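Read as amino acids, tokens; as here:

___
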Amino acid sequence: MSIICHADISKSADFQLKYNFTIFKDRRLVFMTVSDTGDARYEVPVAKSSDTGDYQCTVKADKKTGSSDPVHVWVTGMTKPTLTADKRDVLEGEVVKLRCELPEEEPPLQFCFRKIKTNSTPRETCVPEPYTNFSVLEVSVEEGDNILQFDCFGRRNVKLEWEDSAHSNKTLVTVREPFIKPTLTTVPSSNVTEGDQIQFECSTVVVRMHDIEIILQKNKSILNSVQDKKLLRYSTVATLEDSGEYLCKVEQGGASKTTKLNVVVSELFPKPTLVASMTKLDKNKELILNCSINGFQKANFSIIRKNANGDIPLKNSQTLKMRVNVNDTGSYTCKAEVKGIVKESKPVRINVYAPVSKPTLSVAGGLPEVVLGKPLQLICHSVMGTPPKTFRFYKGDDVEKIVINDTYATFLDENIRLNDQRGYRCDARNNHSSGVKTSDILNVTVVVPVRDASLGSVPYGEVEDGSEIAFLCSVKEGSLPILFRFFKKTDNEVLLFEKIEHRDRAMWHKETMKRQDTGTYYCVASNRANVDVRSQPITISVILAAWKKGVVAALVLITIAGAGALALWWFLRKKKKAKGPSMEMSGSALAANLTSEKLARQPNDGDYYSGSGYIEDSENHMKSTDENKGPDLESAEVEYTEVEVSTLDPHRAPVQKGTETVYSEIRKANNDSMENRHSRISGHPDAT
């Protein structure tokens, strides 16, 4: 096969050019050459399947490179593989190592080995070899493989298709048995009966004694085994349980041969039967146990009591008589022995009963009472007596519930009515012949919860400081006694008074109320039902007492009278000064007086006060004094008198010069009995 690469290059006729050719197969370099012409040839003398692949060439000339398109070449067919075996003569259980090789092929390859037996379909095993052109396989020689033939063939994958080679030469392997199939026998061979001595023998013939083992087993349980021997013996006393299939197996290396034998053991005598005079009986009664075998009398009998810690022999006899106690309750069996064969009867359960004691009936909560609307749980308890016990609950004469338990039973009555007068009782019994024991009658009190609490007071709403008040808390219904509690509503609820009453109301007297007792009050009522019922709150205001109001009024009147007298004195004194012989005053004295009483003092920086000041009499007091004057006061005339005052105070206004004019307004009534005088002082800086 030739792979030819041709380069088509345009050049001048006399220009010499060197061509560098490179040929690749499956992107691997297989050929390189330098030529003066535009052709290169890669010669394959003998085409093989390994030459299958994608070929491509590259040409480089004068720094220019070009590549061809790939060409796929498929060389069909594969060379014939060769097969060799490391052994031509083997024993059963040994291993033959086979080698299949394709020396002229390249991996990845797959090798398939075939095991050919006479008159059977060849067994094929394939092994992939990604990196080598040969494969090795170990084949185990099994029992029955007398003459074996092996061959192999190769396989490769081309374009996702398998291509197989021709089959190799056949290799013949001769197989020999390392030992013969074992023989299993019994002595005696037939008519084996319980109690007979039976012996098993398993034997074989071997080529080599080394590493040989004989095993005897029944139902996958190994009974006996020997090594490096040709014979196995096993003896036992035959029982019914020894009937079944036995297996003798001989193993050496990987070889194994088996033989099976079925053994039937006849029954010598049936299992004994234990019979009790009674299975349920009272304490101190007599119990008779008898053990027997149907149709067989000559046997050694024993009566046994079963126990978790081991069987307890009671008597080596066919019959046992005993007076029982409660502790004798349990399971009993008997055993019979004939010719060394021991068989046991089925167990018999014996129950011994002590009589029940008189039961006690009580309420689960302790006290014989129940809250109306809540369920009532009763407990019936019987201390003595053998369980199980049957308890019956009665309400009146009606059976409400039947319970089977060991020591006690419970009953829940959810139908509680207020006027139900029927009592409760219970009875208990077991399998003792004494019969039923009945409890005493239990009467249960029905507690009615408190409902609709209300609070009132006398007096209601307002109470004078220092006087007493009475609070009354009452309920509509509820079982007695009732706990009444009185509270004042604050940030922290304060309990003021509590009292237990055997009636539906409670009174709380508070003798002295104070101003700090003003607030909101409420009461809470409860009884044995443990349900607190709260009333609506009421508000109590503590007001001032009447005699205290009189004292306050008197103090107010005295204060007003004192203030009036003081005002009258001031007014008369002022009036007396106004009626002097001369209205002219010393300027410095008047300025100093006015400045000290009415005008705000000026700072000592040479500034002076500018504005007007007012001197007013107490008009309120005068109005109260002149109320009886009527309209004459309204028609009074007004006179103005001008008074000139010299401003010569050197301390108040050192730079001021001029005069101040004082105006006096004088209202004269017609009857001349009162004058109301209002003085005004006006300052004029320009002395005008």
User: Anything to note?
Assistant: The domain at 2-73 is CATH 2.60.40.10 (Immunoglobulin-like). The helical segments are 546-578, 587-597, 619-625.
